[in-house]
User: Fold this.
Amino acid sequence: MQTIQHFINGEYTPSASGQTFEKRSPLDNRLIARVAEGGQAEVDAAVAAARAALRGDWSRMSTEKRVAMLHSVADEITRRFDDFVAAEEADTGQPHHVIAHAFVPRGAANFKIFADVIKNVATEAFQMDTPDGRGALNYAIRKPKGVIGVISPWNAPFLLMTWKVGPALACGNTVVVKPSEETPATAALLGEVMNAVGVPKGVYNVVHGFGPAAAGEFITRHDGVDAITFTGETRTGAAIMKAAADGIRDVSFELGGKNAGIVFADCDFDAAVDGIFRSAFLNTGQVCLGTERVYVERPLFDRFVQALKLRCESVKYGRPKDAGANYGPLISQEHKRKVLSYYERAVAEGATVVTGGGVPPLPAELAEGAWVQPTMWTGLPETATVVREEIFGPCCHLRPFDSEEEVLDLANDNRYGLSTTIWTRDLGRAHRMADGVEVGITWINSWFLRDLRTPFGGSKQSGIGREGGVHSLEFYTDLRNVCIKY
Ligand code: NAD
Ligand code: 6OD
Assistant:
């Protein structure tokens, strides 16, 4: 069994109290690690290390050297690729191909893209008239914001944590990371990478532990933390915003979603079935950008439901590296209970269960894992709980529609506004729909296709701010104006 420690000031360390918590495998509920449980003492130590590093070698390092160092971080992640894949597989139980082809390579890319952004970005300048006719020049400079608290979730742990750490470090900040208690492994492993490539001590710190009244909250309330970037549930975002308000700390939030998939009758049918299947069931439905509400134009509805059902019923359950396995467990027993309670609620509220709805039959060695079936419902009104609330599991409700106007109203009738995937061959309609949906990210005839230079974030209650490319600089730097009188 593994022991996972904090990474503070360049060193792996246990908690001062000696306290640990259990990490169990989602595959079979086996105990796989004991993780140091951080409290105020560890957060204080990590913040002190991060503040000291801000004044040390890190702040004196030229941009060119910092950029080169972040490229080295990415290269070292690639060199240690198998270790990162194994760590993520152990924490999440997701299929090898998802982790190896999508999640871990993004961890490396998250350092490279922001290193390149910072190398190439310009700032604005304005020449102005003055009463004496001589004029003045204004120009803006960007400085690191300081110590950034990074609080990340469990669903794509390495991708989502590095998506924040990459730009934070590229902009010259230092970080204190609190990974999800469900997925501590890759954040810990990244400490080895930082040391291997010579990132100064204290630049990257990790404190493991829980959220409310624990390490997570202590970071958000710490006077030595200048800003908080958070990915997770909308409810948690509200709690963090309250904590950050006391210190007037800036926040960047990527929050929940209840995303609509919209399929028009003129779509490429096979591509749409495949796209909606991936968007609803990849990572066992634990993707913030995933689709839990599917609207299909009426002439296609029955055929579409049958085709998606077939895909759901042909998933292969298994361990990450089992031959052919393409479907993993949920992250934990707690999340399994939550998702199954929504499955029961759907039936209680009158859903027709097209497929799934429970726990799959599994070999004895997986029986204790956090497995649930991919599930499809039809027949519910838009007011039903499973149509309104984010479930974050492998399930979706499907409903027919008759017009663009109707489906736009249906799609927008939700407090969330993260993403939409729209399937049509009509270019004009694609543009009209993209213009009308109230979300931060729209995909047409695709899903989760990412160009890391683009603005990424949620509208309505799905987030605050945009990250990606130069947009990340708005949060991770302090933009200051200098006015020079001629
Ligand atoms: P969560 O909000 O429960 O936890 C996220 C992190 O916050 C964890 O590290 C947790 O320990 C910490 N935390 C919890 N309470 C806290 C508090 N009071 N103060 C400080 N930290 C606290 O989310 P989760 O269950 O880990 O992740 C799933 C959620 O994340 C879903 O709602 C999903 O939509 C969302 N998500 C959003 C995006 C996005 O880009 N918009 C991406 C991934 C996940
Ligand atoms: O691609 C990204 O940058 C990103 N933040 C993805 C989020 C996935 C949510 O589960």
Remarks:
- The CA atoms of residues 142 and 469 lie 15 Å apart.
- The first strand starts at residue 2 and ends at 4.
- The pocket of 6OD (ligand 2) is lined by residues 155-156, 160, 163, 254, 287-289, 450, 456 (CB under 6 Å).
- DSSP finds 16 helices and 23 strands in the chain.
